[in-house]
Specification:
heterodimer; A: alpha/beta; four-stranded mixed β-sheet; 18 helices; 12 strands; 45% helix; B: mainly alpha; flat
């Protein structure tokens, strides 16, 4: 009898300690690919070693289907706990109350000094006093340029022009034209991505630097027909008409070696590992309103439907810590100012330190994030549908963008 | 040259021209799968690689769980095909020959599964599989094919086929001493071969190409099937490595191409005799 009782007590003790150390499995979703995915997997494993009761499973979802899958999972009651959220989706997730306010956790943690984040990097995630995510990438659009094509054309590179204070959109256009003349099989430059859905990439840097915008105050009205925006689109139209830029939908990538200049983020350099031409990066050119590039952003967030919000937030704290962000910095320029200057970020295997300083560090201060309305997908559809018409050689760009804005304004009022 | 052979030559010439839009992309994909990421876009219309380089194929298997994904696709498609054939034939026979109360109502209910778009029912289905603890397993991916639109199509096609078989055959077999099961197995199934081949092809293709269900139900890379896996060859922020994607796509297409080349006559025959045009 006594033996049985002591056994019972033992069992109770065992179950009690099991309760304190309850096993938690966190699901962490991302659209990262290649080496970045491997790094995230090893970070998740490291975290599991430090926190014996937590296992983090990294789930990779194709970028194009990311939000669809997350939405079904939230609606179906098996939401991921933590995940990447793309900048264009942030307003929608916040509006549908799908993200946890991290402010109380972050404020209580001394190692996560929010002052270290550049204010521009937090704007997208902030509503009043609440903070719905922590960015891990703070990535300005920059210019990739083909040094071989510049050499062949016998013209100064963007880096040289930058030092002479002459790196502006007029010089960009003239360089592109010279490259096209010297290498007829190539194109001078492109301000657009292969996929027109992604039109906002390069052209927005030109729009901002010309004093234009996509939206007015609070993303409540369309500003694509403002004078500055029209100037930027006219530049793109001119370059396509001259044949210095590939037309929309033409499949010319920078990695093919047939494109003199191309706007993208640092992470694109992974595509250039094995190319047989020399290339480098420079900041975007400056325009009448200065040098204002577009800032690409993505962040970590905890989904409100998570059953383990405490552990999930702790995992985000780990991912956003200095030590870890120093490791992710090899792919994503870090939003923490103290790290942007760090040796890990500046020691990139493919890009020189001097170029990174010019193209990333010196650009982020004046760079802007495109903050979109919650129905961005519909707005984007309107723009994409009209893009080809707007950029036709004979089109009156101002008029066409006016029509686009009428349609966009109607969508925004809905 | 006689008029007849002349018209024949013209016929073939037109056919060859018409085939170009279908054949060219496939040949381009195979050619490009041997090129580097740079070379693919350096000469976009070039079909032949300057040299055959297997590096893309090696990397697909070395750096990504592609082998596991390939196996998943194969075994899921085989199970789906066999199960669809078996259930489709049994149910089709039942609907065509057996009299039971509520038969026509059940048949209409079965057909309605074919009409519903899968997106419309995805959330309740997801809740169901979640309650059964089957999320992130292959069970939903398999079951939703067998008991979803593909299975309903199979039942419908086979029922229509069995209806065209004269009842006298059943009766003759009955007199010769066969039971229901014997009639189904020895008389009806052999007669249904063309329809079975057509259903088999559809079931295999639907399962092989299914993107939506694996996207919704599978979470870990090793459990992905090919359509999902093909989207994974990207740089850190999701930019596509075309050389790897095309090598993997070639590998994903080859079994279908080979199967079609080997059994071409069979396929076409079965499609025409089952009255189904693809």
């Amino acid at each position: 009898m006594r033996k049985a009782r002591s056994l019972l007590i033992l069992a109770a003790l065992a179950s009690g300690s099991a309760l304190a150390q309850e096993k938690v499995t966190l699901r962490f979703t991302t659209w990262a690919g290649g080496d970045a995915l491997k790094l995230l997997q090893s970070l998740a494993a490291d975290y599991g070693k430090r926190n014996r009761n937590v296992t983090v499973e990294v789930e990779s979802i194709p970028f194009g289907s990311y939000d669809q899958k997350i939405t079904v999972q939230i609606a179906g009651g098996t939401p991921p706990d933590v995940g990447w959220v793309a900048e264009r989706s942030v307003p929608g997730y916040i509006a549908s109350r799908s993200l946890v306010n991290l402010r109380p956790t972050v404020a209580s943690d001394a190692s996560l000094v929010l002052n270290d984040y550049s204010p521009a990097s937090l704007a997208l995630w902030t509503r009043g006093d609440a903070l719905y995510g922590l960015p891990f990438s703070f990535s300005p659009m920059l210019v990739y340029y083909n040094r071989d094509l510049f050499e062949k054309a016998g013209i100064p590179t963007p880096a040289t022009l930058l030092r002479q204070n002459k790196w502006n959109y007029a010089a960009f256009e003239a360089s592109a034209s010279a490259i096209k003349k010297a290498s007829p099989g190539a194109y001078g430059a492109s301000l657009f991505r292969l996929d027109p859905q992604n039109w906002a990439g390069g052209i927005l840097a030109a729009v901002y630097s010309n004093g234009g915008d996509v939206f007015g105050q609070d993303a409540a009205s369309c500003a694509l027909d403002s004078a500055g925006s029209v100037r930027a689109f006219e530049l793109a139209q001119r370059m396509m008409r001259d044949g210095t830029a590939p037309r929309l939908g033409e499949q010319v990538t920078f990695a093919s070696g047939r494109l003199g200049m191309y706007a993208d983020q640092v992470s694109y350099s992974a595509q250039l590992k094995d190319v047989d031409f020399k290339w480098d990066v420079a900041p975007m050119p400056s325009g009448p309103s200065g040098r204002k590039t577009l800032l690409g952003q993505a962040g970590y967030a905890v989904f409100s439907a998570s059953k383990h919000p405490r552990e999930a937030q702790d995992f985000i704290k780990y991912l956003s810590s200095r030590a870890v962000m120093q490791r992710t910095a090899q792919f994503f320029p870090p939003p923490r100012r103290s790290l942007l200057n760090s040796s890990t970020f500046l020691k990139n295997p493919l890009i020189s330190e001097a170029s990174l300083r010019d193209a990333v560090l010196k650009q982020v201060g004046s760079a802007r994030t495109l903050i979109v309305p919650t129905n961005w997908t519909q707005v984007n559809d309107v723009v994409v549908r009209n893009l080809e018409r707007t950029l036709r050689p004979s089109a009156n760009v101002g008029q066409e963008l006016g029509r686009v804005c009428n349609e966009v304004d109607a969508v925004l009022k809905k | 040259m006689s008029l007849r052979s002349l018209s024949r030559a013209a016929y073939y010439a037109v056919m060859v021209v018409l085939a170009v839009p279908f054949v060219f992309p496939t040949l381009w994909m195979i050619g490009a799968s041997f090129k580097s990421n740079q070379a693919i876009f350096a000469e976009p219309l070039g079909l032949l690689p300057s040299r055959v380089d297997w590096a893309n194929y090696a990397q697909v298997f070395r750096d990504y769980p592609f082998a596991a994904q390939y196996l998943n696709s194969v075994y899921i498609a085989v199970i789906v095909t066999l199960a669809t054939l078996l259930l489709g034939a049994l149910a089709g026979y039942g609907f065509a020959r057996l009299n039971f109360p509520g038969r026509d109502l059940m048949f209409i209910a079965c057909l309605s599964a074919m009409m519903l778009p899968s997106e419309a029912v995805s959330i309740p289905q997801f809740a169901l599989f979640k309650a059964a603890g089957l999320v992130n397993t292959h069970a939903p991916v398999i079951l939703l094919q067998i008991f979803g639109g593909t299975g309903a199509l199979a039942v419908f096609l086979l029922r229509q086929h069995f209806l065209t078989v004269p009842r006298e055959l059943d009766e003759a077999a009955l007199i010769d001493g066969l039971g229901r099961w014997g009639i189904f197995w020895h008389v009806m199934l052999p007669l249904a071969r063309p329809a079975l081949v057509a259903v088999g092809i559809f079931a295999f293709l639907n399962s092989w190409n299914d993107y939506f269900n694996p996207l919704i139900y599978l979470n870990s890379g090793e459990r992905f099937t090919l359509p999902l896996g093909l989207q994974g060859f990207t740089d850190p922020l999701g930019g596509i490595f075309w050389n790897l994607t095309l090598a993997a796509s070639t590998l994903a297409t080859l079994p279908l191409l080979l199967a079609f080349l080997v059994a071409q006559r069979h396929f076409v025959e079965s499609l025409t005799s089952s009255g189904l045009k693809g």
